[in-house]
Amino acid sequence: MSFTLDVLAATFRNATPLVYASVGDTFVQRAGMLNLGIEGMMFAGAFVGFAAAYATGSLLVGLLAAVAVGIAAAAVLGFLIVTLGTSQHVAGIGMTLLLVSASEFANRLAFADRETLPKIETFEPVSLGGRILSQYGMTYVAFLLVAPAAWLLLRHTSFGLRVRAVGENPEAADVAGVDVFRTRYLALMIGGALAAVGGAFLTLAVLGSFTLEIIAGRGWVALALVIFGRWRIEGAVLGALVFAGVFALQLRLRILPGWDDVPFELLLATPYIVIIIALAVSGRNVAYPGAYLRPYRRA
Q1: Which of 33, 91, 201, 274 is deepest in the core (most CB within 10 A)?
Q2: CA dist., res. 213 & res. 27, Å (int)
């Protein structure tokens, strides 16, 4: 029972950054775009959030700084793929390379002369009773506020209708009076802000420090989770829980007797293998948004 409770508690904790990133990216993909800059946005959010909190002593300032850098990166990406209509693959990968490189360079400038890894005081877990409900405040916010609010926004508001319209048929949406460019910019900024918050969660709540391996491909996983969830908020959240559950399980299996002979690398790769298999199975014959990856130009 103790083992099961530990795995379940860790599942929600490990799913938190994926929930933020995949929920935000659902807006992006439903608007017909592919944000391959999400890994870099999470990385930049993790670094900027940590650096701002370290400099000011305020975790809230760190979180707001992460949101700001996510929005700024999304605006730049929007200029490239929405305004200029460049390749979303090239622009997104370039954005990730830029943000990761800039963050690493800034990290060296700011902290390379220190003998020990800089640390900050992190957000304290909030216990609502039992191990499973002893989580960080940002975890509660992700599952109880951000995901439900995003579901309502995307499915039951005029803004959500505009996002879905420009993702399916931007020409028809434009004729109906929807500002396609503005809607896609806003979708990108929502995605960028939440991706950066997901990255900042790792530095401001979990670790209290910044390392170059901190994101570890979570941005790419979030992209896959949106497709796994068939561009629905609830599907993306479910996918995040599945991935995080397998991730938490393999971490705890390593310390159990009888698992010593299983290669460490195989256990570490298990969550990624599971999500690839799930994506391959669930992604068959899936209906992508009608204008997916298609830049819009007014006639």
Answers
A1: 201
A2: 27
